Amino acid sequence: MPALCRSQGGGFLDGNSRLPRTGTVSYHLLELTAICGELPADLLPRIPGSTSYKESVITSLKKDGLLRTYYRDKLRGYRLGRMAKTFLMEENPERFSFFLTGNGETSRLKSEFPRRLRLHRVAEIFVSMQNAGIRIFRDEKPDIFSSTGSPIILCVFILTGAQSKTSEKIYVFISA
User: What domains sit in the chain, N to C, each tagged with a CATH number?
Assistant: First the structure.
């Protein structure tokens, strides 16, 4: 596979295909696909932005060989192509090596229906978390188990039911 090189416009070029820049919708879709293993096709409307634009971005990524569609057992999803995996590993190895190398759930064979369904559910959770403003990438989260530590604030919310006499405690840990 040829090495990636930066073009004059700031994008990445590899032969005739354009690789996305960090911060673009294309790059975000590749990031989500990398950490999920398979991005469900029906999840696109829940990702921020115009649905028609995201569909055209997906078409462009597929045309460039960065994404491919996988359809089996009535589940349609997008998976990373080999060039996209190489690009993401070269671009940010700290973020993607856990998901794209080794024996992790996202880098294993994904043809079994229960495994694919689990990957789709994980993708839904990641998109919901991002929409709520929660960081989903390991390198963006506080290192709470380091030797220096990270200050954590514990908030306890007590929810009481209006119709019943029960209450429920919700524990939330917030890094300072």
Answer: 5-135 (1.10.10.10), 142-176 (no CATH)
